[in-house]
Write a structure and sequence with these properties.
- The protein is α/β, with parallel strands linked by helices and about 475 residues long.
- Helix content is about 35%, strand content about 15%.
- A hairpin with a 2-residue loop joins strand 4 and strand 5.
- The chain starts with about 55 loop residues before the first strand and ends with a helix.
- About 50% of the residues are buried.
């Protein structure tokens, strides 16, 4: 699940988690209200890039709304630049207020078959999309010819978009979670903001010192509603080497490691009083606390910082990040675009050409860092981070040259990479159950961690049995 756009884990997702598709986006993949009769089957030359003479119209969601003036300006510039290469492709962008994807709307859209030709998804959405026959298999179309950077995209990211060896989407962003800190509060508490805590014992000790500053300051914050509590429980468990769902497809968190997490939160909340009095928090609440210098730490993805600066008036230099405590693995997620099932081969090719230009080419589209800096947009966050090898080095160099924030504040996060691990099966339904564990222990001093986890185990196994 991910942060803002990434994450409606947080709704999700966020993340989140975090990126909306509207049910009004049309009912046909042709964009003109008529069925796309040329759709079935990939042509023999599927791997060949789109012929520039091809005439096709693409409906695409998640175009920036007017309220995001700089992002919309860049979208329009990219459309114009793309049309110089493919003059006969019309990009019909659709924007929505708020998140690009809101789960209830997304589900309704899939069931109504009303998604646009190119539709925005979270990494956790693949099963739901395929259960509703929503996305085209684009395996034959995505090659180093159509996506030159293909071999430099992290395989962990690409595998999330595959099922049974078939590819159903292309990534637009990804994130891994870490420990987000308020550098001002760390300094005031006598802590070194350049070395954030790496273990939960260190987190607990640092939280006590920050909470001791008084004036309503909390040392550590946590979510517990709207699926975000379960999302963070999962992230914490991953960091400690555990699993939410085991290889046997059953709940795997009701064990000593899983209980340790709940017991530690209970101690921080009720013994240390380092988590503040206000609980039942969701995505957006912890960001407000940290932006106003009332919170020292919480688990997050890097783009939470952008939200706090752009929406809450905070300053970039007040934040830093370290790796996820424990360091065994870290929950990762992100966003992608999929192409509507039944789209014609030309439409699929045009969509891949657009996504390659806009989201997958170093120095262009979303990776035109010099342009982003000139437009007043943030440059320097350690995400998207799906390039590896030479492409990563090139992208990092371009990013550093146009950085609008102190990238050294992320040094601990970047210098101590934690292996990424995908979200569990039926993530949102599982997170909803685990919310009860988090809310229970954070609002009830007498809560029994073993009972909370036992009840959650039974409920999650029921969810997983209905796959």
């Amino acid at each position: 699940m991910r942060s803002n756009t990434r994450r409606t884990v947080a709704a999700a997702l966020v993340s989140a988690l975090a990126v909306t598709a509207l049910a009004a986006c049309g009912t046909s993949s042709s964009g003109d209200g008529k069925p796309d009769k040329t759709a079935p089957g990939a042509p023999a030359d599927a791997s060949a890039p789109l012929d520039p003479n091809t005439k096709v119209t693409l409906t695409i969601d998640c175009m920036p709304p007017a309220a995001k003036a700089a992002e919309l300006k860049e979208w329009k510039e990219d459309v114009e630049a793309f049309k110089k290469i493919y003059p006969n492709v019309t990009i019909d962008g659709r924007s929505t207020p708020g998140q690009c994807l809101e789960p209830p709307r997304f589900t309704a859209m899939l069931k109504a078959k009303s998604q646009p030709d190119v539709f925005y998804t979270y990494f956790t959405d693949l099963k739901q999309v395929l259960d509703n026959s929503g996305a085209e298999d684009i395996s034959a179309y995505v090659t180093p010819k159509s996506v030159p950077a293909l071999d430099t995209i992290d395989k962990n990211v690409m595998n999330v978009l595959k099922q049974d060896g078939k590819l159903y989407g292309l990534p637009t962003s990804n994130y891994t979670m870490g420990l987000l800190i308020n550098r001002k509060l760390f300094t005031q508490a006598g802590l070194n903001p350049d070395t954030p805590p790496r273990t939960w014992d260190e987190v607990r000790a640092a939280a006590k010192k920050i909470a001791a500053l008084g004036n309503g300051t909390a040392g550590f914050g946590e979510y517990s509603v709207e699926n975000t509590g379960g999302w963070h429980y999962t992230a914490t468990l991953y960091g400690m080497g555990g699993d939410v769902v085991g290889a046997d497809g059953k709940a795997a968190f009701n064990n000593p490691t899983g209980r340790q997490i709940v017991e530690n939160l209970k101690a921080m909340r009720w013994e240390d009083d380092s988590m503040g009095k206000t609980q039942l928090l969701k995505w957006g609440d912890l960001q407000k606390q940290m932006a106003s210098d009332k919170l020292g730490m919480f688990l997050a993805a890097p783009d939470d910082i952008t939200y706090m600066v752009q929406q809450l008036g905070a300053k970039y230099d007040n934040f830093g990040m370290g790796p996820l405590p424990g360091g065994a693995s870290t929950l990762f997620g992100g966003n992608s675009y999929m192409i509507k099932k039944g789209s014609s081969p030309d439409k699929v090719k045009a969509a891949i050409a657009w996504l390659n230009f806009k989201t997958l080419t170093v120095g262009k589209g979303q990776f035109d860092f010099a342009r982003s800096k000139a437009d007043g947009l943030p440059v320097g966050l350690p995400q998207p981070a799906f390039f590896v090898g030479a492409a990563k080095e090139q992208s990092d160099a371009l990013k550093a040259a146009s950085a609008t924030m102190p990238v050294a504040n992320f040094k601990s996060f970047l210098d101590n990479p934690v292996p990424p691990k995908a979200e569990p099966a039926k993530a949102q339904e599982v997170y909803k159950v685990l919310d009860k564990v988090m809310s229970g222990v954070l609002t009830n001093k007498g809560a029994d961690p073993a009972q909370l986890l036992g009840d959650a185990e039974k409920a999650v196994n029921q969810v997983l049995a209905n796959q």
